[in-house]
Amino acid sequence: MQEFDELRKQAKTEAENTVSLGALNDVRAKFIGKNGEITALLRQMKDIPFEERASFGKKVNDLKEEVSAIFEKKERELKEKEREDRFKKEAVDITLPGNAVKVGGAHPLNIVKNKIIDAFCGLGFEVFEGPEIDSDYYCFQALNIPKDHPARDMQDTFYINDNILLRPHTSPGQVRTMENKKPPIKILSPGRVYRADDDASHSPMFHQIEGLVVDKGVSLCDLKGLLDTFVKLIFDEDTKTRFRPSYFPFTEPSVEVDVTCCKCHGKGCGLCKNTGWIEILGAGVVNKNVLKMSGIDPEVYSGLAFGLGIERIAMIKYGISDIRTLFESNVRFLEQFDRR
Ligand code: DAH
Q1: Whose CA is nearest to atom 2 of ligand 1?
Q2: Positive or negative CA dihedral for 60, 61, 66, 71?
């Protein structure tokens, strides 16, 4: 009996003193494992007189159960403590400010390009994109600008060889469309263009959108109506348009189109150089030679064309004074525009 009490006390004390599940398992093995001290008692059974055996066995089993219960209780306590410790370690302070996720946005040039395309698509135009590297024929000759013609100076670009060049404008889109499509034609041709130019208002690479309408009986009046509707959509309802006579080899007559200044609304300010008007694009009635060269009969059909610079519209719309800021990828500059 004394040995039993001793074992019980010892197991209890040792279990209570353990601080980890690993240590508790060692203690458990020491007492009730296969070679444990209490288990060893059962092996003594054969030496116990027969009449005492039953009560001895019961006592050993009771002791084993009692000790097991102590170990289980301790195990629950240790597991609970381990869980609490882990929670403490993994705790996060939900009152701390979070790390904001940076969201990108469309580039101002894309915003303006999409607005222009939306406006014209609403008027029934389709989009056609031509190649950036194009031939002398499509960039000049088919647009009524023969080799060595002085008008080529207006669109001096980068040559790959005598015949292949980076297109200086999106006007070749007109020719490619007319060669492939029968009238009625109503297309827009947006894209990158290149010029041997570089200052605050000119960039060696910039973007244009070409427009072309070919049908029976279209005239300069239709052009005026079309562009008037367009500028009201892009700037605002009060914007007025004005045509000034101009010259382009591919249109006859040719015009330059001005709009009332969106900053001062025609009163005169720095942006419009005190004239109240800002030039936004070139346009005209398609030259009969151009129609003929692209396989369209100028006696049956007539055409309207216009070409605008996307940078120019963006600069006017957002009051940007240097074109180069549009290409510098300065996030602080770009963040100011619509985020969508
Ligand atoms: N291609 C001309 C340029 O780059 C712009 C232009 C003017 C396009 C008149 C046209 C047009 O289609 O009719 O300066």
Answers
A1: 307
A2: positive
Q: Do residues 82 and 115 both lie within one domain?
A: no
Q: Is 240 strand, coil or helix?
A: coil
Q: Tell me which residues have their CB closer than 6 angstroms to ligand 1.
A: 155, 169, 171, 210, 248, 251, 282-284, 305-307
* pLDDT classification of 339: cutoffs 50, 70, 90: low
Let me know whether 221 and 83 are in one domain: no
Q: Do residues 313 and 108 lie in contact, with contact meaning Cβ atoms separated by under 8 Å?
A: no
Q: Which atom of ligand 1 is nearest to the CA of 304?
A: 13
CA distance 147 to 10: 110
Residue 99: inside a domain, yes or no?
Answer: no
Query: What does the pLDDT look like over 182-235, one tens digit per residue?
Result: 999 999 999 999 999 888 888 999 999 999 999 999 999 999 999 999 999 998
Atom of ligand 1 nearest to the CA of 174: 12
How many angstroms separate the alpha carbon of residue 269 from the centre of ligand 1?
27
Q: How many domains does the chain have?
A: 2
108 C-alpha to ligand 1 centroid (Å): 23
Between the two ends of the chain, the Cα-to-Cα distance in Å is 84
Does the residue 340 lie in any domain? no
